[in-house]
């Protein structure tokens, strides 16, 4: 075999991947050829260096946890993105609903109620500030009085109806 033919299978020879016939041929050639022997020597050194480098590489501490955390983060980011789209669509549908409500005949009623609400707010703001917060207490107490009278009246009415039924 020529040097060129032998060199094609030298890597396999160094890695121990040759079958018996090929191995015999290569070894026979190597006994007689110094340059191929030199090449085998260099190949063996390079392989040893590569293995030494590979063995010196140590996985960073906690790499598994960090990878899992990163995956969880990515999953969360994806979910947040998904939720954002859902909220966006819901918001758009809500705005469409409000616009449709305002345009439709029901919208006139909604608008009227809104104006009434604004008018009440306006009226409240016209109460003189010299009264301070006493007017709130006054309003609250008079509301309580009205509610109390109503409840009292209703309960009396119910009682009288009951007694009429009994009689
Ligand atoms: Zn040779």
UniProtKB/TrEMBL annotation:
InterPro entries: Anti_sigma_zinc_sf, Znf_put. Pfam families: zf-HC2 (PF13490). Keywords: Membrane, Transmembrane, Transmembrane helix. The chain crosses the membrane at residues 84-103, 133-154. Residues 3-37 form the Putative zinc-finger domain. Belongs to the zinc-associated anti-sigma factor (ZAS) superfamily. Anti-sigma-W factor family. This is Anti-sigma-W factor RsiW. It comes from Alicyclobacillus fastidiosus.
